[in-house]
Amino acid sequence: MIIKVSGDGPHDEVILTPLEAAFTETTCATLAGTEAFTRGVGLALLGRVADLRIRPSDASGTVDDDGQYAVKLSVDEDGPHQECGCPEAAVAALCPHGVAVALAATGSVNGDEDDDDYVRAAVGVFLTGLPRAELVDLVLDLADENDDLADALWEATVRWHRDQATD
């Protein structure tokens, strides 16, 4: 089955498979939640999806994320479904591994380095995963190498101390 979606003009029709229609970025973000969605975007951008198989109504792949996770996505009259062996899949409609496979299968994440949103998401996933002490060390090391960053951090530090004194 193919689903047709009309655009603004008479020749702007886009043809979607049921998989593409069911696993849009918006739907994935809603099903997964912000944190899992962001992590899934990062996994897709980092090329962690392998063995990707795509059909009109389902997709499967393996995601490398501190272990290998086999993911199967499908869509039927009840909507989108996911199978993944990770603990998050047991409590969420879509886990980060499902997000990564969905985005890779639908072509939503292409890893184009010129797209600031995707780069920001991938860096956000990286930074979120760092222990706090490592994050602080990384920022301070980067500030040592970049005067603009050092100045911006100093200004933020001064504002923070000022705000703390007035509270």
Describe this structure in words.
It contains seven helices and six strands; from the N terminus they run ββαααββββαααα. It has helices at residues 18-22, 25-32, 34-45, 96-106, 116-129, 132-145, 147-166, and strands at residues 3-5, 14-16, 49-54, 58-64, 68-76, 79-84. The model has no long low-confidence stretch (mean pLDDT 85). The protein has 167 residues and is α+β, with helices and mostly antiparallel strands. The protein has a four-stranded antiparallel sheet. It has a two-stranded antiparallel ribbon with strand order 1-2.
In short:
The protein is built from 7 helices and 6 strands. The chain is an alpha+beta fold and 167 residues long. The mean pLDDT is 85.
Name the features.
50% helix; 6 strands; 167 residues
The helicity comes to 40-55%
Query: What is the radius of gyration?
Result: 20 Å
The number of helical segments is: 7
Question: Distance between termini?
Answer: 60 Å
The main sheet comes to:
4 strands, antiparallel
Beta-strand content bin: 15-25%
